[in-house]
Specification:
Elements lengths: L2 H14 L6 H5 L3 E3 L8 E2 L2 E2 L2 E3 L9 H21 L4 E5 L11 H19 L6 E5 L3 H4 L7 H7 L8 H16 L5 H4 L11 H6 L6 H18 L8 H23 L6 H11 L3 E3 H11 L8 H10 L3 E7 L3 E5 L15 E4 L15
Length: 362
Amino acid sequence: MTDSQRAARDFLNENYGGIAPSLADIMRPSRLKITKKTLAPSIMGNSLGSIDIEDTKGGLSPNVDVLTKTLLKNAATLASQSGVSKICIHFDELDQGLGELDVQRKEMLIGLILAIRSIRSGDEGNTILPVFYIRSDLWDKIRFSDKNKISQSSAVFLEWDSETLLSMINERIRVKLGSGNTWIDIDDEKLMRGSQSKWSHIVARTFLRPRDIIQFLNFATEAAIKSYPESNFFDNDDIQRAREPYSKYLKQELDDEISPHWDCWVEALQAFSEIATMTFSRDAYKDAYNRLKSRKNKIDADEALEILYSFSVVGYRRGIGKGGSGWVFQYADPDARWDNAATRLKVHAGLKEFAKLREERN
């Protein structure tokens, strides 16, 4: 064990109870202990025995910056000794379930972004690469100096559509089945009901997120193998059988996202089941929702629809061009605002099976 390894291990054991601390362990200490056995940062030649994270006014102690630089240098040394060229630290899901940013959360996110920029522009930035993920709607609400510079030079905007999702799936197929294989090779090319391709049928049931596509195809794979163990392509029955477990998965995803803001949101979902059709009028929804609404649910029907739209559970009908119209969903058109005057609404297709809905037919 090298001196750097020993120092890092002893520091983690001393302050966080081990080398694999939980997030709660990391956030807990108000003071960090430093012994001669561990890291030994110094200020003006004086070694620090311990460091208070907060100063007397509740701000960040300046000594933390000294310790941070020592930790980063130690990590870079460990990487070099281990033959590791890059250490990527990913900060993801910090915005999970967030609809609005309060002042404290804005300051925390901005602080993290600026800390990441500082690390990447420092001496250890060639080895240690922190990466921060945030939804574009929340990024637009954050204001700080040099934000535009970071957007232009250090940010990558991940935008998914049917084509880019197919490219991602093709890459996974190539890794699993060989370089010559793509989606075309595992699709029997027969159209679903309504002359819709399998791929379009699947994409319409997602929020244009990779994990949704992957989850749907995992269920379809299970269905294909169960019906025919030697199967090497998807047929229409496989896609149909995948819809019900996928719909349950999507509802559970929405539980995670909506429940922190509105714990009675399932009542809104039950109102769809009461109506029983994927498309419905605002008045019909109000009637069903008001009948099912419990006393502890303080959200009225109009507000419920607006919240459901913000999470892409429902969309509304909007006129397009000369005499045309189309459905507007938040996930597909993030810039579109909720239309309080909309009278014709639609439940997202991915929830059809869970809510036991049917399509209206002429």
